[in-house]
Amino acid sequence: LPPQSLELDLQLASGLVLRFEDWAENIRVNADGDQLQLLLMPDSLYDSNKTLRYHKLLDGWLRHLAANAAGLQLGTRYIGVDALLTLPPLAVEDARAWLTAIAQDWVASQCAPPPLACKTGFAWLVEYHKQLDKTSDENQARQRANIKARDSYLSGFNSTGERDQEPELARAWPEFTALLAAGLDDWALRLYEPLRKHLETSA
Questions:
Q1: Fewer Cβ close by (within 10 Å): the C or N end of the chain?
Q2: How far is CA 137 from CA 8, 21, 131, 142, 173, in A?
Q3: pLDDT of 72-94, one tens digit each?
Q4: 180: pLDDT confidence band, cut at 50, 70 and 90?
Q5: Spatial separation of the C-alpha atoms in residues 183 and 188, rounded to whole Å
Q6: In the sheet that 84-87 helps form, which strands lie side by side, from edge to edge?
Q7: Where are the alpha helices (DSSP H) in the chain?
Q8: Residue 116 burial (CB count, 10 A)
Q9: What pLDDT sits at residue 203?
Q10: Which has the closest alpha carbon to 89: 110, 68, 113, 120?
Q11: Global confidence as pTM
Q12: For residue 31, what pLDDT is reported?
């Protein structure tokens, strides 16, 4: 299919309306009429420990949300050098709600640095759910997730933490304890959980 124009007006809680304009490209259609957006990834989708690199999926996730919020009803396939991942289509209402939530937090981030680091946020989220699968103790799951997130954020022996990879994080959040206290876990659950859950249900 030729590129499809995407035009969306997102109504925020403050009354502000954000205009979203983009194009959905590289769309294929099968014999049943199902549409699939192809995204070529120049990197591996999994790291050396076979852990999914969620931070590499965010750009495609936004494109997926926008296309489905606009009513295209298409799936999105990531084509990495090591694997294929497919996001199933979303209901218009779900896609629009999640995209609006992201826009809401984006506006808030223009006023103050959000307490969120991408790799660290996903490290917290993945470990949190991993622990919840083992125990019903949510406090314990959060504590273990906090440790995992700290190890992702701060540099250690033979590893460079996300803080030292991103100068803006080092300026805004030089201490992990401050990042966590400001709401890292809440932001990760609000912004990243929809992607993690959608991938989990499609597996």
A1: C
A2: 41, 44, 9, 9, 29
A3: 999 999 999 999 999 999 999 99
A4: very high
A5: 9
A6: 27-29, 35-40, 74-79, 84-87
A7: 58-69, 92-109, 118-132, 138-153, 162-165, 167-172, 176-181, 184-191, 193-202
A8: 23
A9: 64
A10: 68
A11: 0.92
A12: 87
